Amino acid sequence: MKPTFDHIFMNLATDLAKRSHCVKAQVGAVLAKDTRIISIGYNGPPAGTHNCDEEFPEHGCPRDSKGSCSLALHAEENAILYAVKNGANLEGATLYTTLSPCLPCARLIFSAGIKQVFYDKSYAEYKGLTSDEGVDFLNRFGVSAIKAV
């Protein structure tokens, strides 16, 4: 049986996560539209700055006031920024990501016109939060955000 494009794109996001230099978590993302890949991304510092696993191998990048990496972009941000930088139209696109979007990423996803998000694992569970705020935000404002099966 042929794999679905949803399955293929989620597998690609999982493979991309392995490219991350983050010491704390590896996350991958794929942006697709009409069965075509628009952009890919994984979490890490902006290109040309440093690699966390090389510069901060024991504990990762310095933490911000909320305990998150102070230097890295999230996988979704990297995929969206690269697409926009190259003039891609994201209206109606689908995002596949290995970790459900945090709230700031959800706002970016919504604003970019992405209409559907498939995710593998829960950001809330990873961060010890009571709910997936990003998923709740997206679903509230008309972006279908669902756990991949």
The parts where pLDDT drops under 50 for at least 5 residues are none
Largest sheet: 5 strands, mixed
Mean pLDDT: 92
* Strand segment tally: 5
> What is the gyration radius calculated from CA atoms?
15 Å
State the distance separating the first and last CA atoms. 17 Å
Count of runs of 4 or more consecutive helical residues: 6
With strands numbered from the N-terminus, the spatial order across the biggest sheet is 2-1-3-4-5
The proportion of residues in beta strands is 15-25%
Structural class: alpha/beta
- Overall, the morphology is globular
Order of helices and strands: HEEHHEHEHHE
Précis, in short:
Belongs to the cytidine and deoxycytidylate deaminase family. With 149 residues, the protein is α/β, with parallel strands linked by helices. The chain has 6 helices and 5 strands, in the order αββααβαβααβ.
Task: Please describe what this structure looks like.
With 149 residues, the protein is an alpha/beta fold. Helix content is 34%, strand content 19%. The protein has six helices and five strands, in the order H-E-E-H-H-E-H-E-H-H-E. The protein has helices spanning 5-17, 52-55, 75-85, 103-112, 123-127, 133-140; strands at residues 28-33, 36-42, 94-99, 116-121, 144-147. The longest helix is centred in the N-terminal third of the chain and has 13 residues, at 5-17. Zn(2+) binds at residues 74, 102, 105.
